[in-house]
Amino acid sequence: MSLSAMAAGAMTVVRQCAAVSPGEHVLILTDDGMPRAVPDALAFAAASLGGVPVVVVMPRRQRPGQEPPPLVADAMKRAQVILAPTSVSVFHTQASRAAAACGARMLALSECREETLVRGGIQADFRARAEVAARLAGQLRGEVLELSTPAGTRLRSCIGGRTAVANTGLAHRPGERSGLPTIEAYVAPLEGTTEGVVVVDASGGTIGLVPVPVVIQIREGRAVEFGGGPQARTVEGLVAQVGHRDAAMLSEVGIGLNPRAEVVGRIIEDEGTYGTCHVALGSNSHFGGRVEVPFHLDLVMWRPDVSVDGRVLMRRGRLVEEAQA
User: Can you give the residue range of the structural domain that contains 159?
Assistant: First the structure.
């Protein structure tokens, strides 16, 4: 795909979402599993705004949340802006948090492909939907969250008043981090409290689209049984590979809010698609939880019903407040 075809989307990333200013040092972090045209398009866009882009290519990580090499982590701390089109997510890493603590603002474009910068979620009005995400994050506060889907997901989690996060796709201030083109609101359940079953019928990080639902039994907060097709074995293997029991902890419940996004098998767009919800296994210490492991796997489901303390927030994938408007 030509760079010109990606130009508008790349400009959305650097101008609207990252607000790159002249003279800012922009680290474009990618890996050897990504199409080179994506970081090139972002570099050209950043340079056109007067930024100083540097593309860093690292070896592809084995699983989402795995730390980048130390040399890369050091470079991240020296950047003012980080754009991360990588094969697997580096958003949930200590390196990402350390860079933010040093003042870098970051946009993760995990599993991004050329078409991600051409159509779909990248065409959203991120500023307008930021208000929706912030409002829903405020509503995801209470004691008990309940989630169900037509495919069979049934979960009950204690959230204990934890503060939910609005992922807006925008990173304008020092230390801000967001995914892109996802727009979502998410919360970290209290560890060990989630009970029920997750039926993943849309997609998942690293596994892509799910033709045969992945069924995960959750007991005392952890995934204890995986069923379904070959992708269920892949998910189970990824969890086991970490070598820590908390890799199986259900650590996040999130709701997609981007009306232009589609479920295409790339997690950074799929998890933000309006009409879906997702859960994650693994780390959550950087958004209010207590799980610290080098792993974070998002799993996406269609048409959720979501309530907090009996207040219905979403019904069959539509926000109640928008359905009533």
Answer: 123-323
